[in-house]
TrEMBL record:
<dbReference type="Pfam" id="PF08071">
    <property type="entry name" value="RS4NT"/>
</dbReference>
<keyword id="KW-0699">rRNA-binding</keyword>
<feature type="domain" description="KOW">
    <location>
        <begin position="166"/>
        <end position="193"/>
    </location>
</feature>
<dbReference type="InterPro" id="IPR013845">
    <property type="entry name" value="Ribosomal_eS4_central_region"/>
</dbReference>
<protein>
    <recommendedName>
        <fullName>Small ribosomal subunit protein eS4</fullName>
    </recommendedName>
</protein>
<dbReference type="Pfam" id="PF01479">
    <property type="entry name" value="S4"/>
</dbReference>
<dbReference type="GO" id="GO:0022627">
    <property type="term" value="C:cytosolic small ribosomal subunit"/>
</dbReference>
<dbReference type="Pfam" id="PF00900">
    <property type="entry name" value="Ribosomal_S4e"/>
</dbReference>
<dbReference type="GO" id="GO:0006412">
    <property type="term" value="P:translation"/>
</dbReference>
<dbReference type="InterPro" id="IPR036986">
    <property type="entry name" value="S4_RNA-bd_sf"/>
</dbReference>
<dbReference type="InterPro" id="IPR014722">
    <property type="entry name" value="Rib_uL2_dom2"/>
</dbReference>
<dbReference type="GO" id="GO:0019843">
    <property type="term" value="F:rRNA binding"/>
</dbReference>
<comment type="similarity">
    <text>Belongs to the eukaryotic ribosomal protein eS4 family.</text>
</comment>
<keyword id="KW-0687">Ribonucleoprotein</keyword>
<dbReference type="InterPro" id="IPR013843">
    <property type="entry name" value="Ribosomal_eS4_N"/>
</dbReference>
<dbReference type="InterPro" id="IPR041982">
    <property type="entry name" value="Ribosomal_eS4_KOW"/>
</dbReference>
<dbReference type="InterPro" id="IPR038237">
    <property type="entry name" value="Ribosomal_eS4_central_sf"/>
</dbReference>
Amino acid sequence: MHRKRVTIPRSWLIPRKTSKWIATPRPGPHSAEESLPLMVVVRDLLKLADNAREVKRILHEGGVLVDGTVRRDARFPVGLFDVITVPALNKQYRMVKSTKGYFVLIEIQPDTPRKLVRVENKTTLKGNRMQLNLSDGSNIIAEGDVGTGDSLLISLPERSIEDIIKFEVGNLAMVTGGSHTGMTGRIKSVQIVRSSMPNRVTISTDDGDIETIIDYVFVIGRDAPVIELEAGI
């Protein structure tokens, strides 16, 4: 349930030596290395409480929603592009990654929340229906031309598809891992590697071209990002 604070992932933007132990994310929609427990989000990032007891009281009273759903588990994993809502403050936040690789929260408009998810895989079900396996661990039934690597803009908490952004040259993308984490630009080319190595993607940014593996590329829009993404840390 806990780990030593000095062993936390580098993406956690919290002090490492203020105490010995810290909560770990429970198995769920995001992996342990690519998420923060809700306890840390509420206490250390939002600063809505001073200690674990206060966090648990807030969550028990339904004071925090993740992707439009009340979450009472202090170890619930919160990951990239998840939307955190605090009804008592009429505020909403989105989890993003900064250019230094840290998970940070940015405040967004307190209206009907929307979320961007990536299609990781797809399965054909009985009746020729298509099930999409998404980057946040959820599944959704969809129709039309949707491929692996495409991004879906979905409404919350209904999780209905509002838009499909294709993984193709010319569209905007964000790098979510590696040395170029947090950088955004347009997909310039995709190199298919005929081996067990991952395919490579070249992205054109304001500072020049960068190259990364396809697993780190998250399409975020066509002419402009479809969600707020600014993170200055």
